[in-house]
Amino acid sequence: MKELQELRNRIDEIDSKLIEIFEERMKVVSEVGRVKRENGIGTLNEKREEAVIERGRSLVKDKTYEESTISMLKSIMAISRSHQNSSNCRDKIDAIDKIMDSVVEKKDKPRVVYQGVEGAFSFEALKQFSSDCSYTNVDNFRDVFEALENGECDYGILPIENSSTGAINDVYDLMREYKTYIVGEELVRIEQCLFGVQRAKIEDIKEIYSHPQGFSQSSNFLSQYGDIRLMPYNNTAMAAKMVSEENNISKAAICSKAAGELYGLKCIKEGINNLTDNYTRFIIVGKNLECDNECNKVSVILTLPHVSGSLYETLAHFANNGLNMLKIESRPTGDKAFEYFFYIDFTGNLDDGVTRKVIEDLACESIDFRLIGCYKQSCDMIK
């Protein structure tokens, strides 16, 4: 059996070379993974893997080994993906754990900024949030985030969804753009009213001013008056203020009763919103993550690999761990056509081991992941 032993010795020599080359390849794979992580690129690149296989096929001299070579390359690439994913996962878990362990306490007598003017629904949310705060107002949603970014306030108040018209997409997009955290939420009951100057009647109105949400929430009423022009405005209360200042009988505003009365207008028609139970959910955002034992809601933003089944596998974590997903919203990433990031709310608390595990699993499976809040859910306010 001397010949057999000699052949085995040759295989051992070749295996030694293969292992040396494999180690060299895996070091390069690690560097590729690092570059991908730094540039927000997912592990799997199907076109690249197809090119590797085709190149390998072309290099095979003895075609009897062609299929075996392809199988070997597929196995090596699967090992490489697993290695990159493992490295990615460790880095992501370390980063997420660091964030979850950096919780701070709520501010006493905070400085709060809201969008709009006094009488706005955002102002109502502010009053619900804190009765002992100083506050300032800004013109638009981005200004709220800029004020936080520049240290001009401790918290910002922003509307994020309405029970009648759904998501307020601009806020979702800004939450992804700015590094802020949701620290609370408030539900405000919304009653839209049509206000004009004191002598105005409905037949005098030629233009109605309001925030686009005011128009959407009152679309059934407005459909009766097709000749009236709808003029979008930054905020419902700002619209009321402008109508009052211009004192023009042909102009009206859709706003709250409080805003209309505050600016000395006449209520032409109250309760014009489509749904009686019309609520807007406002989020309170801050620069730091806050969480205590009363918090029961977690929010995350993530981008998933653009492959079949990735969203299904992500959502399975909630059912498998007994956590209730409260909301999912998709928005375009803005980087590539028809690719999206997901905003997800679910029940949980950062001190709970199951919640932390789910957050870590979500982070590992995502191309991009951010924990953006742990706070007390306010939906029990609706009776």
Structure description:
With 383 residues, the protein is of the alpha/beta class. It folds into four domains: 2-87, Chorismate Mutase Domain, subunit A, CATH 1.20.59.10; 104-190 and 274-290, 3-Layer(aba) Sandwich (D-Maltodextrin-Binding Protein, domain 2); 195-269, D-Maltodextrin-Binding Protein, domain 2; 294-383, Alpha-Beta Plaits, CATH 3.30.70. Helices cover 43% and strands 23% of the residues. It contains twelve helices and 15 strands. It has helices at residues 2-38, 46-59, 66-100, 121-129, 141-149, 169-177, 212-217, 219-222, 236-246, 257-262, 310-320, 353-365, and strands spanning 111-115, 134-138, 155-162, 166-167, 181-189, 193-196, 207-210, 229-232, 251-255, 266-269, 279-286, 297-303, 325-332, 340-347, 368-375. The strands form three sheets. Strands 1, 2, 3, 4, 5 and 11 form a six-stranded mixed sheet that branches.
Determine the structural class based on helices, strands and strand pairing.
alpha/beta
CATH topology grouping of the largest domain: D-Maltodextrin-Binding Protein, domain 2
pLDDT < 50 stretches? none
Content of β-strand: 15-25%
Tell me the major beta sheet.
Answer: 6 strands, mixed
SSE series: HHHEHEHEEHEEEHHEHEHEEEHEEHE
Number of strands: 15
